[in-house]
């Protein structure tokens, strides 16, 4: 059950698990442009409602879902290779770090919270964008599409991240911006934050425990912080 009205109450966590696209990096304009180009190459209609349904899911699963529209001789591997090739085109919208993300990650790591990325994207895609945005060094592990059998909304990726970090899912918080991602986090047994655009979307907020538009304002504290408060030394920023 959601407790958005109490979003300012500190949430203690041993681990913070982040989706990548739309949560840590602003890649949605690029992603939508990329899918539009792929479908246009094959003369397939692709509306906004259809594009919205791709959010948070692995590209292979999206392609397999629509594979029949690419012709009877098309294979998922061939279509995915086209998508990867299109991603290299120079005129696509750029990918940027979400405002406040770097400060939030620094604070969490400084205060003893283990960090992981759980993305529906490929490993090379994730590492490339995390490196370009200057935050790759914050994360102990990255769980990518190649690491799981079942993508979001299945909880496999989040459960794997918890095992790699050595924490129970109930000791972790998940940050997501999509329906599939929030369902995956909840099914894993973690507490979930709807962030960014998701925090302004009632249907997504209902899937979350908390909602914050700005990551830097998420009221998450590390396991060492409450004891510092009790001792009167003050909370870390």
From TrEMBL:
Listed name of the protein: HAD family phosphatase
Disordered as annotated region, ranges: 218-237
InterPro entries from the UniProt entry: HAD-like_sf (IPR036412), HAD-like_SPP (IPR051806), HAD-SF_hydro_IA (IPR006439), HAD_2 (IPR041492), HAD_sf (IPR023214), PGP-like_dom2 (IPR023198)
Organism of origin: Streptomyces rameus
Family matches, as SUPFAM superfamilies: HAD-like (SSF56784)
Gene3D superfamilies: HAD superfamily/HAD-like (3.40.50.1000), Putative phosphatase, domain 2 (1.10.150.240)
